[in-house]
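Lecture 7 notes: from sequence to structure.
We start with the chain below.
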Amino acid sequence: MADSGVEMSPHPPKEPLMGTNPPIELWVGFVNDVPLVGTSADMVDGFIALLLGDLKTAEAKGYKDFLELAGIHQLKPGSILQNHEGQTVIGCSAKVSRDINDFIIQAVQKPGASAAIKVTNAAKSGADLRENLTASFEALRDKLRERGIDLARDVKQEQRSNRGEHVFNNALLGLYGSIIDEFIKSHVTGDDRVTLVGRIPNSRVSDAFQGHAPDGDHINLTAAQRRNISTWVVHIPYDVAYVPINNILFAYMTKTIRDSAVDYMNLFRLKKNNVYTQHVLDILRWKIEWINTHRVYLDPLAAERWFSENPNLIPQFHTTETGVQLMLRHLDPQRSSPLRDFVNDLTNAGATFR
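Predicted structure tokens for the same chain:
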């Protein structure tokens, strides 16, 4: 089986089918989030192999006779769905076999049924995401409490928005600009900050500061991903208990990332390359990975509701999240150069440093 080329889904714990004597064990596997139910692991794995077009694995799992009886001599991915009239699943009664086959075919071929399956799976994925994020955030809050930081006390909590709650924290779009702004405020004198940045048109500093970087340039977010971050919102009823915990954590973490980034930029400007500079880099990298690992840029409740309401957009969600994580990692000077580019562009614009 190891050389079959098919990666089988892990089986959840087997559950007895109540009402039968003796109880029948049911096994569940998944193909593209569609559940396959059978009375043995081999039956489930074999049918997954059929759907994937893997003849060798299907026959090894007991489906050789099935293929011959169905008149199938060559398997291609998905071909089993085109020849389902006389289809039988070995080990099941005729009714159970028919029900399983109908469910699979409906889920894959019928738009209405497929949409219903997508909504169900999206709701489960959203609930799992919310549970995992909430547990992660609570653990993070506890770690901060150990350091004497009480987020509810020390970080201003924003009121709920009448426009809806964002799935991704909308402040992501202004993070690079806020770093430039803080650096100019702390280390540049003379010119008005906006005027200074405006003197370098079409530069990375100008684009990031003013929020109109070309598609995918510099901040690693495409125009579509930036639009998703700014427009993906849900409306949570006021009778639902809602605490925007990610807003609090995001505000705290991005402040610490901004502080470390500004420290590094000033050390780079001064051409300092010593133990302290390395320490600042290590802290900055740790903070970036911390916010990515725990996905602090997401709102647990908003994400759960959004998943249920927008199952067809979930692939875009994952693509957008990948872009967000890369955008944050670009702030690590050992991975990318934006922080150094910021300083060089400001220097070339004739900035007067303190």
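Points to note: The mean pLDDT is 74. DSSP finds 14 helices and seven strands in the chain.
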